[in-house]
Design a protein that fits this description.
Elements lengths: L3 E2 L3 E3 L8 E8 L3 H7 L5 E2 L3 E11 L2 E15 L6 E16 L2 H4 L5 H4 L2 E3 L3 E3 L1 H11 L29 H5 L1 H12 L1
The structure holds zinc ion (2 copies).
One zinc ion (ZN) binds next to loops.
Length: 183
């Protein structure tokens, strides 16, 4: 069975041992708010990301295998220019019924390193968004060999060269310059 839905809430009862497949147009535009509020503004997210999900149960544990695919806008950490890059990730997660100890607040979810479900319906969006964030590069770079901005005059060294370049690039020269300044 293949469905495309916008908001995905899976009813726990309908999850069977036989795997089912689902294609989701996951709305991730809200992730932009997360980044707008924070200090880091390295990424812009498209309104929708395509996610395919296979899910099934084994006893009371629910298993999910997914793949997400989309185009993300990043801001290069070296030259500060915006660029688009494809994001692709396979992911897995398992949901187990929430134990009573966790419901009482005796154990926090993070402490146990497990994901629980407590309701009759499961909203998979938070799990998918978490996977999106985990799939992002730690430091976005427009190209592996991006030359960045000149620390001396600030020009984009991918686009033009400058006169301060050679001496700035050589750390030994920088050492001698500070030496001179100190005297
Ligand atoms: Zn760059
Ligand atoms: Zn320069």
């Amino acid at each position: 069975m293949r469905l495309t839905e916008l908001v995905v809430k899976l009813s726990v009862d309908t999850i069977a041992e036989a795997p089912k497949e689902l294609t989701i147009a996951e709305e991730i535009g809200e992730l932009n708010l997360l980044y707008d509020q924070g200090q880091v503004k390295e990424f812009r997210f498209p309104p929708v990301l395509e996610v395919s999900l296979i899910y099934y149960r084994s006893g009371r544990e629910l298993f999910f295998h997914g793949r997400l695919e989309g185009l993300i806008e990043g801001r290069c950490g070296r030259c500060l220019k915006s660029y688009s890059f494809p994001l692709k990730k396979d992911f897995d997660f398992v949901l187990t019924p929430e134990p009573i100890s966790a419901r009482k607040g005796e154990l926090s979810r993070d402490e146990m390193g497990l994901s629980f479900y407590a309701a009759e319906e499961i909203n998979v969006s938070p799990f998918i968004r978490e996977q999106v964030l985990l799939a992002l590069p730690t430091r976005p770079l427009c190209a592996e060999g991006c030359r960045g901005l000149c620390t001396g005059c600030g020009v984009n060294l991918n686009e033009e060269s400058c006169l301060c370049q050679t001496s700035e690039d050589d750390p030994r020269m920088a050492f001698f310059r500070t030496l001179k300044l100190d005297q």
